[in-house]
Amino acid sequence: MNSMIMLLGVLFGFLNQADMLPVKNSTELQESKARLKRKYSDELPDFDDMTAMDQILEVNSKLRVPRGLSFKEGDIAFSYVRSAIDCPGNACLWPKSIDGFVYVPYILSPLYDDMDRITIETGMQDISAGSCIKFVPRTHEASFLDIQPRYGCWSFLGQTGGSQTLSLQTPGCMWSGIAAHEFMHALGFVHEQSRSDRDHYVTIVWKNIMPDHMHNFRKHATNNLNSPYDYSSVMHYGRYAFSEDGGPTIIPKPDPYIPIGQRDGPSALDLHKINVLYDCGANE
């Protein structure tokens, strides 16, 4: 019994001393964790508060690219180089009906549950409520969106013709803002910071970008539709997108503290640009 008490006493003393020892590199560990957490997160506290693009990059960072496809800017699928925003004669845009609406047929995978369907349809409605775009279940149309819970969140750019996959993985992509983001790609829009005039509004901090992802920050020869640059666009990258070491990769100017990107859905300017591109007329 005495030996047991003595053993416990020695063990207690050892643990007490261990508590007093300094933790090696504790500050560096905390900084490393913080750096990792804000890699795509615009310094926001958790996944739920990321911008739509931050969430997409987080999900797609684990994506195994489907055979025959490549991705640019993190979530734009292509099998050959093309851009709906500047294709000749707007041939890559969805056609406008005689009644003034642009009907985008779609089919929704039966693998989605009721909450998934509500989330995706909310993303559609957020676009339709402020524009002449109407997403309609496909009946016989030759060209349509095939919305599938594939790996990751991605879309082709503009109308490609025939069955056109748009991937919204569940649960990772199940946010109406993410759905709206991918639908805007399908309508023909690139990311906001890829605009041809972006250097007037943001600084790209190239030294902070992961070397393998610098191509995601190239500018496009876009038709900017005489519209102002939109820091609040649902199509805008977050401040730390593709950051190599936790430093910002995009800094707004002249005010570096302007918030960029969001996850709520299309901004007023996003809807304005849809209306201009598709000549929505009275609905603008």
From TrEMBL:
Residues 83-281 form the Peptidase M12A domain. It comes from the Eukaryota. The active site is at E182. Binds 1 zinc ion per subunit. Its EC number is 3.4.24.-. Its cofactor is Zn(2+). GO terms for molecular function: metalloendopeptidase activity; zinc ion binding. Zn(2+) binds at H181, H185, H191. InterPro entries: MetalloPept_cat_dom_sf, Peptidase_M12A, Peptidase_Metallo, ZnMP_hatching_enz. SUPFAM superfamilies: Metalloproteases ('zincins'), catalytic domain. Residues 1-20 form the signal peptide. One of its GO terms (biological process) is proteolysis. The keyword Signal applies. The keyword Zinc applies. Keywords: Disulfide bond, Hydrolase, Metal-binding, Metalloprotease, Protease, Signal, Zinc. This is Metalloendopeptidase. It comes from Austrofundulus limnaeus.
